[in-house]
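This entry is retained here.
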Amino acid sequence: MPKEKVDPYVSDLSNRTLRVVTLAADGFVLISDVDKDGNNVTGNDRFRATESWYKPLVMGDSPTPRSGHSAVLLGERLVVFGGWDAPVCYNDVSILDLCLMDWTQPEVTGKPPAPRSWHTAVPLSSNSFLVHGGYDGDEVMGDSFIFSLDTCSWSALADSVPISPCCGHQGLALPRTLQDKENQEDYNRQAILIFGGGDNNGHFFNQLHRHTVSHDASGTAVGDTWCW
């Protein structure tokens, strides 16, 4: 019998866990993960999936090896935030232009989130995303921030989210509908769902929370108070 052909990158991927995978228009982009022994080994690997895995040529300085980071797709740009390579935690931002396949580390303004890992990051539009919660190596967090890609700036939400601090949870932005667009006030607000996670002290959560963020006239999410 002929020997089955195994793509070398597929073989490499089989030994990994705790992956951060983001779906792009033409496949998956894998930023980094942890191997079966707990080592952060793939911080500089990028893969794209078509019919088979291959490693594209990428320019610029990629993020340092890490785990527990987030990767969100905003238009044609993949934005990586935070993560850790124990005992160091990060709060840096790296952007991969998927058209040019070029990494950049922009200068950011505003008050950024404290270094953290295992937070949730939720794309709100093609130019902004929300970061909530996470773990800094000592404490579990419950604060929230919005990053604007247009201005490369951070803004903190006015009030804390009324849920327990958590890490390892999941967030999702619900799409705005045409019915919402008929009412401009409703269309300028976007519903966010947050589910699960834990306190890194043996307690896990199964509550589902729904919150709302506002958008300004340009469609950029702004750091208003959470609304029920």
